[in-house]
Specification:
272 residues, alpha+beta, Uridine Diphospho-n-acetylenolpyruvylglucosamine Reductase, domain 2, Enolase-like, domain 1, four-stranded antiparallel sheet, 33% helix, globular
């Protein structure tokens, strides 16, 4: 199957982009890296009347540290973040997650904001943004809105983006003093969508575990520092709260098993 007919325009700036979105409304879609959108076009899950290409918008192509966050613009590729020399000390969780994201050819074209905007519940970048309690900046002709990740993701492939808005940037909080991180996922093959993906953030006072690939969005759970049987019970309760569903890749029982077993392993790794 091929995409239905659409018009194409390459925007030169963020201002031009939001102007085009205001003019065309829900008939327009943003094209950045296209690694998710083009597949959806080919099977006609998306049928926009116009594609607005932002890949050449220099004012949206940036990765910088600002106000305690690693800020990534809408046109910045995943590779431009992954290869950042200081990433491991700035946002360690991202450094751990990037090698699990598809393949390097995809990361060379795909954008960070595009993955966040697509909101696939199995994707690693939405998981990391949720685990770190990051923010999404939405821009339209009427101004900007800043949403927490928990408020931005609203379901499978569903977000709080309104007609006329673009995900202008995402903000990943820098490493917290004393915090330790761990990441792991299980998939059919390396580079496939995660059956279950997990990110742990452990401090002296608390444990946080975020799970993707099970519910309709990444879900974060926080506990005071617990261990032993108390931790096992908490992980089991969390696994059931996620309301796992079985599919062609894994049963609900297997997903719950992974949450319990990998969750304990990750928390142990991040605690040492």
């Amino acid at each position: 199957m091929k995409p239905s007919a659409f018009d194409y325009i390459r925007a030169d700036s963020a201002e031009e982009t939001v102007s085009l979105l205001a003019r065309h409304g829900e008939d327009a879609k943003i094209l950045a890296g296209g690694q998710s959108l083009m597949a959806m076009l080919n099977i006609r899950l998306a049928q926009p009347a116009m594609l607005v290409d932002i890949s050449r918008c220099q004012d949206l192509d940036y990765v910088r540290v600002e106000n305690g966050n690693l800020v990534v613009g809408a046109a910045a590729t995943q590779a431009s973040v992954e290869t950042r020399a200081t990433l491991a000390s700035e946002v360690p969780l991202l450094g751990m997650a990037f090698p699990w994201i598809s393949h390097f050819q995809i990361r060379n074209r795909g954008t960070v904001c595009g993955s966040v905007a697509h909101a696939d519940p199995s994707a690693e970048l939405p998981l990391c943004l949720t685990a770190l309690q990051g923010e999404v900046v939405l821009r339209s002709q009427s101004g900007r809105r800043v949403l927490k990740a928990d408020d931005f993701f609203q379901g499978m492939l569903m977000t709080a983006v309104r007609p006329g808005e673009i995900v202008e940037e995402v903000r990943f909080p820098l490493q917290q003093q004393g915090a330790r991180y761990a990441f792991r996922e299980v998939s059919m093959r390396h580079g496939d969508f995660a059956i279950v993906a997990l990110a742990a953030v452990v401090t002296d006072g608390a444990i946080e575990l975020t799970v993707g690939g099970v519910a309709d969005r990444p879900i974060r759970k926080r506990w005071e520092r617990i261990a032993g049987d108390d931790l096992d019970t908490a992980l089991n309760d969390f696994a059931w709260e996620l309301e796992a569903q079985g599919d062609a890749h894994a049963s609900a029982e297997y997903r719950r098993h992974l949450v319990r077993q990998l969750g304990r392993q990750l928390i142990g790794k991040a605690s040492t």
